[in-house]
Design brief:
- This protein has 220 residues and is of the alpha/beta class.
- It has a single domain, classed as 3-Layer(aba) Sandwich (Rossmann fold), CATH 3.40.50.
- The chain has eight helices and seven strands; from the N terminus they run H-H-H-E-H-E-H-E-H-E-H-E-H-E-E.
- Strands 3-2-1-4-5-7-6 form a seven-stranded mixed β-sheet, sandwiched between helices.
- The mean pLDDT is 97.
- Bound molecules: calcium ion.
- The site of calcium ion has 5 residues, from loops.
Length: 220
């Protein structure tokens, strides 16, 4: 029995996955294809995808944002959880990675729900703000270049409606955020954003220690 978050050894982690993950065939295929990729560690864990899917369904979300697509696992789980007229505006700069994503969106029959914007995410987000789409998104997932995390957070916070949810990935950054000796740029940026969000009264928060750490921030 413990009233602290457990440390997962690989046996307990495998158990967790074995009795909780319900991954459809297409998601499994995408995960396996991405696992062979050089940047495979950028893919979210299946239990994290399932949590996000549950949250989207729980909220009855319709209009969502994704900052950082990679090969499309997270946008696919979100799109599958959305109603048929739901939308994901998905931001990425990589033609190569998102070509894989597109193939699986197509295969899963959800490509009509996903609007891929191939441009720097900060430009796409600014454009949405300029178009008057602030306070209209139900859910957003931030999982892109860590050096811009604070900018993405501020832009997305404008775009999400009060009561909307922002999920921010990699906030525990392999444990490096807790090691003061780690002073590389990305670690410092994530640590600074974590500190800021902790005291940010614009949101209610929970840092969920799933995968590499997922902050959930509910806009007040
Ligand atoms: Ca990530």
């Amino acid at each position: 029995m413990a009233n602290q978050t457990l440390r997962f050894d690989s046996k307990l982690y495998r158990y967790l996955q074995s009795i909780s993950v319900r991954e459809t065939q297409i998601l499994k295929e995408l995960r396996q294809e991405t696992a062979n990729h050089l940047m495979a560690r950028m893919q979210i864990a299946p239990e994290q995808g399932q949590l996000m899917s549950l949250l989207v369904e729980l909220m009855g979300a319709k209009k969502t944002l994704e900052v950082g697509v990679f090969t499309g696992y997270s946008s696919l789980v979100v799109a599958l959880a959305l109603p048929d007229d739901g939308k994901v505006i998905a931001c990425d700069v990589s033609e190569e990675y998102t070509a894989i994503a597109r193939r699986y969106w197509e295969k899963a029959g959800v490509s009509h729900k996903i609007d891929l914007r191939l441009a720097p995410a900060s430009e796409t987000l600014n454009k949405l703000i300029a178009e008057g789409q602030s306070n209209t998104f139900d859910f957003a997932f931030i999982d892109a270049d860590k050096s811009n995390y604070d900018n993405y957070y501020e832009q997305v916070l404008k775009l999400v409606r009060p009561g909307g949810l922002i999920a921010i990935d990699n906030v525990l950054w392999g444990g490096k955020v807790a090691e003061q000796a780690e002073q590389d740029n990305r670690t410092k940026k994530i640590r600074a954003l974590n500190d800021k969000i902790h005291n940010d009264l614009r949101v209610n928060i929970s840092l969920v220690p799933i995968a590499d750490g997922l902050t959930l921030a509910l806009k007040r």
